[in-house]
Design goal:
The protein has 874 residues and is α/β, with parallel strands linked by helices. The protein contains 22 helices and 27 strands. Mean pLDDT is 77; it is low at 1-72 and 435-452.
Length: 874
């Protein structure tokens, strides 16, 4: 791991003295083993000294002691050094940014060793050539900021020391997790927060509906923190883990066999799993370990399990290779999707890299070793290798290298280093013109910054905002995180094992998380195993609309069976946990996968049933009116007189109103029709039945008065009939008035009786009052029927008892059948049943009581004479 330290250096030549190396000699170099991983930025081996590199620097003629271990390095990370050098050169060549000031930098190596990390950090705070912690007498080499490398664990050791001095620290890799971090400590993250990346991965999985995934992370604290963060986030979003594997790191040769066995188990778990998507989280060196996986299949006879997977790679990882891995097969990563720090190519960087060679980079202690490892050659004056091996000319072109070895375009981490250097420079530029700075002018008018001014640079660095040469805005948020998004790339592996990154989307931190992800599916190339079809990654097949998921006992929630929706419910999307009811205005279709608008239903005048009933009601009303007119016209005839004219007229009028009251039941229910329809019908019908009852009683009394000495003669008269009609009708009127006063009927909407319809109806308000009014009419009709039945054999030619018996028999039959029929029907048919009962019962009374008499009056007038009546009575 390298720590990049940006220094503010006056325009003086800087000499790299041997004393630096001699100081380090007091601390023995940590033992290195054959399989020990080198640092991320060390190219061509591991440097055992501190390099001081500057555009204005010259080096003493004294040989610079270096020691490189013959290790295979990650050559790709040499671009980080070039990005740093390029940024410093840009700044130093810009006279308007920092006039009379030259930036320089150190690059320190820690060897993944805590002891060396602390030593290098303390050395930065010491006077050059003299390692005396917390003592600095040099006024020229002033430490201004530290750019910390890729692996976050290194930062924790560095911050332990640098936080004491409030030295600005810029992290170009992932930020460390610090539970005890005091707010306001001076570090700045050149990458978005991890939360943005985790939300981005979750959004990507949901976008492609990948809900059954595997996870591969490191077997350390960083890996555990990753699992702790993403597990609840993914679970809440409906994503399950088929497995979570933790891979260790090879540190010693003795660990090799054990790690290979662990790797074989991981390989077996990955490629035996039904999950086609694998989220891979690690540090910068993790990809070199993953490249062993294809060879484990051969080593452990697992070749038959190889299949395509979609690898989702986090920002810290990139397709890199050790020197010995450059020809290894990486087909399994074809179609991988990686999140990376946003990057652009600053103008001139490509040319700067293209011009890089061992002769142009004087003072670069890394380039020779990098060159040898990148091109697989050796320089004649080195002690490494055999003289017969391929010799380096120094004219080799970096452009010819595979991207896994070296990239010409600036990568995300290199771009973060580039922006970090410029952020420090712009902060210094603002600070130099501020009234708050402390400055002293020495010999020659050169600007010198004292150590006590380090803490003063934080307000300027925190508020820095500028556009870099690539046109991107650089600024920090209130947490000290660079306001920048993440690029989403698709890896395309070619047959010659070179690869290409295609940008397919991004995560924008400045818009809501649910809209932050943008993806271009048409640009994605999937693994060849998927035949360029979007892969599925499911534990169970999709649960299609019309079905709901049924969890399997003991299985994750992504593993389920599916069952049809129960009656009355639907599911209109895939993978729904439960079915739901349609809103009141809709009902389920037959497949139960969408809702159909309901029809508004009521008995209207525009449909055949309503027209038929209305026509029948009007026709019967007209007939009743004609009968009434006929009886009134022949009111002086014996047959009319013999049947109590007043009762006859009252009965006919009430029957006429009964027929007309049926029209109140037809049409869309309104407030006034709901109030009138049942109450008006109940009162009018009660009057009609009361008239029939009065007629029956009057017939019986009339017969009884014919007996000699009968005392019943005084009861025969209109007063008794009127009293019967009024008393019986008033009781019904009282019931209806009470009904209207307490719980009156009102227009209502029934959504439940008929599935396909919304029924507009009159709610009776009180079912008790409704059936009370109906029962009272039934009581009157039964009493009338009973009396008429008992008097049916009275000897009188015009005795109405028989006619009343038949009419009440019809009446009672209709209403007795009405009750079960009414209760078993719904909607407009229920209204039609009641209308039919009204018309049928009224027509029964009209027909049975009046038509025989009407026949005599109209067609047999010769029988409508007193002589005929007397003769027939005899």
């Amino acid at each position: 791991m390298l720590v990049l330290v940006v220094l503010l250096i006056p325009r003086l030549a800087i000499t790299c003295k041997a004393s630096l190396v001699q100081c380090k000699a007091h601390y023995p170099h940590p033992p290195l083993h054959k399989y020990h991983q080198p640092g991320d930025l060390i190219i061509g081996g591991i440097a055992s000294q501190t390099f001081i590199i500057s555009n204005s620097a010259t080096f003493s003629e004294e040989p610079q002691p270096t020691r490189f271990e013959a290790l295979a390095g990650v050559t790709k990370n040499y671009q980080h050094i070039l990005a740093l050098a390029f940024a410093v050169r840009e700044i130093n060549e810009n006279p308007q940014l920092l006039p009379n000031v030259t930036l320089g930098f150190h690059i320190n190596e820690n060897y993944f060793n805590t002891q060396w990390t602390y030593y290098d950090t303390m050395e930065m705070l010491s006077t050059p050539d003299r390692f005396i912690p917390n003592y600095k007498c040099d006024v020229r080499n002033n430490l201004l900021a530290v750019i910390v490398g890729l692996d976050s664990q290194t930062y924790l050791h560095v911050a332990t020391v640098l936080d004491i001095y409030k030295i600005p620290q810029l992290i170009y890799g992932s930020a460390p997790e610090m539970n005890d971090k005091t707010p306001g400590l001076p570090f700045y993250q050149m990458a978005p927060s991890k939360d943005l990346q985790y939300v981005g991965i979750c959004s990507l999985l949901l976008h492609f509906r990948w809900v059954w995934i595997g996870a591969l992370t490191m077997d350390n604290e960083i890996g555990e923190r990753f699992v702790e963060r993403v597990l609840p986030l993914f679970t809440q979003s409906g994503i399950c883990f088929a497995f979570i594997e933790r891979a260790g790191r090879i540190n010693f040769v003795s660990d090799m066999e054990e790690m290979l066995q662990i790797g074989a188990k991981i390989y077996d778990k990955i490629f035996n799993s039904q999950a086609n998507v694998l989220v891979c989280h690690g540090e910068s060196f993790s990809m070199t370990s993953l490249r062993w996986l294809p060879y484990l299949s051969e080593l452990f006879n697992l070749t038959d399990k190889v299949q395509g997977k979609v690898w989702i790679i986090t920002t810290q990882m990139d397709l890199t290779s050790m020197v010995y891995q450059r020809t290894w097969n990486v087909d399994m990563f074809h179609g991988a999707v990686s999140f990376s720090l946003h990057s652009s190519d600053p103008p001139g960087f490509h040319q700067f890299v293209d011009d890089t060679n061992p002769s142009s980079m004087k003072g670069d202690g890394f380039i020779l070793d990098f060159w040898q490892q990148a091109f697989g050659c050796i320089f004649p004056d080195t002690d490494v290798g055999n003289a017969d091996e391929n010799m380096c000319t120094g004219r080799e072109k970096l452009e010819s290298l595979h991207r896994s070895v070296f990239e010409m375009s600036m990568t995300g981490h290199s771009y973060s280093i580039y922006n970090a250097v410029h952020a420090v420079a712009h902060a210094l530029c603002v600070m130099s013109s501020s009234q708050l700075r402390h400055r002293t002018v020495g010999n020659g008018g050169e600007l010198k910054l004292q150590n006590q001014q380090l803490w003063q640079s934080h307000p300027f660095l925190r508020s820095v905002s500028f556009n870099n040469s690539a046109g991107d805005k650089v600024s920090f948020d209130h947490n000290g995180n660079l306001i920048v998004g993440l690029d989403i790339n698709n890896w395309i592996i070619y047959p010659n094992q070179s690869f290409h990154r295609v940008k397919i989307g991004m995560m924008d931190p400045q818009i809501p998380p649910d809209q932050a992800l943008t993806i271009s599916e048409e640009k994605i190339t999937w693994h060849s195993c998927f035949n360029q079809m979007q892969p599925f990654s499911l534990c169970s097949d999709h649960c299609y609309p019309g079905y709901s998921k049924k969890m399997k006992e003991g299985e994750p929630f992504c593993c389920y069976d599916f069952i049809p929706c129960p009656e009355g419910k639907i599911s209109d999307q895939e993978d729904m946990n439960d079915c739901f009811k349609c809103t009141d205005n809709y009902y389920p279709n037959e497949a139960q996968d969408f809702c159909i608008p309901r029809n508004i239903s009521f008995l209207s005048y525009e449909e055949p049933l309503g027209i038929s009933l209305a026509f029948s009601a009007l026709s019967l009303s007209v007939i009743t009116g004609l009968v009434l007119q006929t009886f009134m016209k022949h009111h002086n005839t014996p047959i009319v007189k013999a049947n109590n004219q007043n009762l006859t007229y009252t009965l006919l009028i009430s029957l006429l109103l009964c027929f007309l009251s049926a029209l109140l039941f037809i049409g869309q229910p309104e407030k006034w029709t709901c109030l009138l329809r049942q109450t008006a019908f109940g009162i009018v019908f009660s009057v009609a039945v009361s008239c029939v009852l009065a007629k029956t009683i009057m017939v019986v009394l009339a017969f009884m008065t014919t007996k000699p000495g009968s005392r019943m003669r005084k009861w025969v008269g209109t007063r008794l009939a009127t009293s019967i009609v009024l008393s019986c009708s008033l009781i019904q009127a009282g019931i209806c008035i009470t009904w209207l006063a307490t719980t009156p009927p009102f227009p209502d909407t029934d959504y439940h009786s008929v599935t396909e319809e919304i029924i507009l109806q009159c709610n009776e308000g009180s079912i008790t009052m409704f059936y009370s009014a109906l029962s009272y009419m039934g009581f009157l009709s039964i009493v009338s029927f009973t009396i008429a039945f008992l008097a049916r054999k009275l000897p009188d030619s015009f005795n109405e008892a028989k006619l009343i018996t038949f009419s009440m028999l019809v009446f009672c039959s209709v209403w007795l059948s009405f009750v079960p029929t009414y209760l078993s029907t719904k909607g407009k048919h229920m209204v039609a049943v009641e209308i039919f009962s009204i018309l049928a019962s009224s027509a029964g009374l009209l027909g049975c009581i009046f038509f025989p008499k009407l026949y005599i009056i109209v067609f047999r007038p010769e029988l409508n004479k007193r002589e005929q009546l007397v003769r027939r009575n005899q």
